[in-house]
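RETRY 2/3 - previous attempt timed out on the joint model. Re-submitting the same 534-residue input unchanged.
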Amino acid sequence: MKPRFVETFVPPAATFLLTTAAAEFGIRAAGVSPLLLPTPSAVARAALQHAPTLLPALAMTAQAVAIGLALSIALGLLVAIALSTSRWVERAFYPYAIFFQIVPIVAIAPLLVIWFGYGMRAVVAAAFIVSVFPVIANSLAGLLSVDPALRDLFRLYGASGFARLWKLSLPWALPNVLTGLRIAAGLAVIGAIVGEFVGGGGLGVVVLEAMRQQRTDLVFAAVLHAAALGLALFAAVNATSHFALRRWHTQETEP
Amino acid sequence: MTPSPLPRYPAFMSAPEPTAAPTGVAVRVRGACRVFRSAGEADVVAVDGVDLSIAAGEFVAILGPSGCGKSTLLRMIAGLEPLDAGDLGFGAGGGAPKNALAYVFQDAHLLPWRDVLANVALPLELQGRASGERRDAALRAIAAVGLADAARRHPAQLSGGMRMRVSLARALVTEPRLLLLDEPFAALDEITRQDLDDQLRALWAATGMTVLFVTHSIAEAAFLAERAVVLTRRPARVVLEHALDLPAQRDAALRGDARFAREMSVLYEALRRGNGKAA
Ligand SMILES: Nc1ncnc2c1ncn2[C@@H]1O[C@H](COP(=O)(O)OP(=O)(O)OP(=O)(O)O)[C@@H](O)[C@H]1O
Ligand SMILES: [Mg+2]
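RETRY 2/3 succeeded.
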């Protein structure tokens, strides 16, 4: 486990330190205006100084993302299950599911505020809308790829529809569902920030406010918080995935 | 059939059970036809008027060239494929006896998220049997295929031969009266395959079930079965039904025997004839 830890975390940490140092000295040497591009140390100072604003904002955004993502998983999975029941249902409805994929969230965000009012609900809706399609598409692909021989086996032993779903299709689709979730996690953060630009609250408002005050360092600090949120979600999905699928593929070999 | 000694069969299983051992079920296929239609393509006649009569407790091998319709025929018998013409009867007459059938595919097709024990117990679980009963029956079936030490391993941790054994145990766990196998050991190396052939024959002798074994290996058909049915190339029709004149107790030595070679040549000639070439 130790060497694995070193292999995983040392290279990216080294890259981070090197680029940060390079940016720090590069920006200083070139004499770029802090209004255009603040040095990493200035960003860090802004982050510390505004922690009382940034951390509650981060918590608020995180909450909206979590709820939006939870809705995406639950509804996305239900839609995928419904679409997988018959080719005709799939043909009739799948084209409309693609709507979620192509909808320009920036354009639709004001509409969400009209429907849900200012605040959390519009933000959650924005996070949901941009993150639900990858869940639907990947889950559906997984549900439709169930080994036909295993379908036959379940049929042979008179399995109920519920047993087929619960004991075969859903576990079979799990890797795909998790892939969808990994994509959805990143998108949900984007959706929430865009939602906050219009609906208010969270890191989105911190970014807008900092921009108005020409505090580029604070904009950067807020963006870094949003990125950290996305990264944390990604890592959480990866960990879940690793844990859930650890038995499926294993390097452990025959004695 | 004469009961033979069971080399790899665990002692506790060969002991007579209080309940009567499951006995094989007879199968009768009459004029079975199956045509696959798909839009924009010519119809594929996979099976064309096959008659087949299999006695209760018989071990029959079905031989035929690749793509001739063997799997389709077996799937029709299993009820996984409809008959476009002809009919299918079991036992004294009538439909498929409930919970009496088991099917083994060409590959193991296990659930990767379940360990060996849970994979083998699956058929009983789907049939709604109690969990204690499932566990006991699954452990017995796992022991019968020689995997007692691997019950808690997952499919990814098993070799191909072990996975196929699990698949066989999963088929045996319901104590089927009719076992259908579709080229089950074709993907295995020769030694593992012969080992599993031996085991299958021992299991057949011990249980008295009916076994229908599809293969395109002449040697495997001759070694395993009491009777071989040879099919023509597509659409499948029966070109030869041949009772194999070989001792009930078969071992590795038989493969070098003159009788074995003679039976193999009979099957070989029939396969050639079925393939449209003069013998
Ligand atoms: N679901 C299907 N739809 C269309 N055609 C099919 C279908 N299943 C089988 N066929 C066709 O029917 C024919 C017989 O197929 P089948 O699988 O029964 O052959 P087989 O004898 O088992 O061959 P193999 O030895 O290669 O397994 C083939 O030409 C195949 O392409
Ligand atoms: Mg086949």
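The pocket of adenosine-5'-triphosphate (ligand 1) is lined by residues B 36, 44, 46, 64, 66-72, 216, 234 (CB under 6 Å). Closing ticket.
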